Amino acid sequence: MIVSFTAILLAQLLGEALARAVGMPVPGPVIGMALFLAFLTLRDRWRQASARLLPPPLVDGGVENAAKGLLAHLSIMFVPAAVGIVGKLDVLASHGVALAIVLCLSVTLTLAATVLTFVAVSRLIARRDASRT
Amino acid sequence: MSGDFALWVYLSRTPLLWLTVTLLAYAVADRFFQAAGRHPAANPVIHSVWMIGLVLLVTGTPYPTYFQGAQFVHFLLGPATVALAVPLYERRETVMRALLPMGAALVVGCVTAMGSALVFARLAGIPYDVMLAMAPKSVTTGVAMGIVEALGGDPTLAAVLVMMTGMAGALIVTPLMRLLRIEDMRARGFAAGLAAHGLGTARAFQVSEVAGTFAGIAMGLNAFLTAVLVPVAVSFLR
């Protein structure tokens, strides 16, 4: 558990440092995710060497379980930031209804546009592949 | 009475109280969510937020005081984002096969998210400074705050709008997908993560792990593209 958590935090720390150093617009944790992905890929490419060199939780599925444990509770982690709404009640009072309508409309449109594009393109590819064979 | 008051003064300043309140509210909301058959309208985030908000308003507790306790939960968002690498890695073959649909959906979704927010906001007569904070509403909080700050807007307001968008998205996504008859979990998840960042991703994980994986990817990619495109979109407003 400690080793797994250390590995995850280390990836985030490196990501954070990289984001600052290069001045990337991407947040540190997202770069940390990419680094962690690279780590998992390299670990499995050199399976024997990693089994010998790395601490057991990083090779026996322990780190995967720790990661999934975190993700199972992803929802609660948004609560503290979302409660910040109470600090902006003045803006919400003056434009609340308009804001809510705009946000709901925009998010609905975005969901629909994204999902329809995804489905349309994947169908197009499937049809092209089918006609080729 | 003064003894009780002294206890309150003491407790309200320790992180313990607000951390406990956060976990308790979520535990209650999650219980309700499970009892309601995981119905989207019973989303545990939305219901814990109003419960905690009510407690803060009634006790007159300022948000920064609350956050001192709640920050321990908030902190886990970073490691959880890194943890998204695990489902992504385990499903890498499914992901690699969907590169083209993801790329197309990313561009269309990102432009729709920003464009529709700005156009509707202008039609609704929302002032410019609020509109500015609204442009990156579909990306994860940290990035949205950074973008708005760089443009001279109000980052706290941006965070609030991001959260409202996330909650709206988490609420709408399942009924909307049923209405559109979309059964492809990759597409559903990708849309949820793109339109409603982490809250959409959390909702997607409640529905299926494939959806959650694709939501996580969409969230990361959209953060990047939005950071590049918002300054361009906002320049059209002036």
TrEMBL record, chain A:
The chain crosses the membrane at residues 29-46, 67-86, 98-126. PANTHER family: HOLIN-LIKE PROTEIN CIDA (PTHR33931:SF2), HOLIN-LIKE PROTEIN CIDA-RELATED (PTHR33931). This is Putative effector of murein hydrolase LrgA, UPF0299 family. It is a multi-pass membrane protein. It is found in: Cell membrane. GO terms for molecular function: hydrolase activity. Keywords: Cell membrane, Hydrolase, Membrane, Transmembrane, Transmembrane helix. GO terms for cellular component: plasma membrane.
Automatic annotation (TrEMBL), chain B:
One of its GO terms (molecular function) is hydrolase activity. Keywords: Hydrolase, Membrane, Transmembrane, Transmembrane helix. It is a multi-pass membrane protein. The keyword Transmembrane helix applies. Its main location: membrane. It is found in: Membrane. The chain crosses the membrane at residues 6-29, 41-60, 66-86, 98-121, 157-177, 189-208, 214-237. Pfam families: LrgB (PF04172). One of its GO terms (cellular component) is membrane. InterPro entries: CidB/LrgB. Signal peptide: none annotated. PANTHER family: PLASTIDAL GLYCOLATE_GLYCERATE TRANSLOCATOR 1, CHLOROPLASTIC, PUTATIVE SEROTONIN TRANSPORTER. This is Putative effector of murein hydrolase.
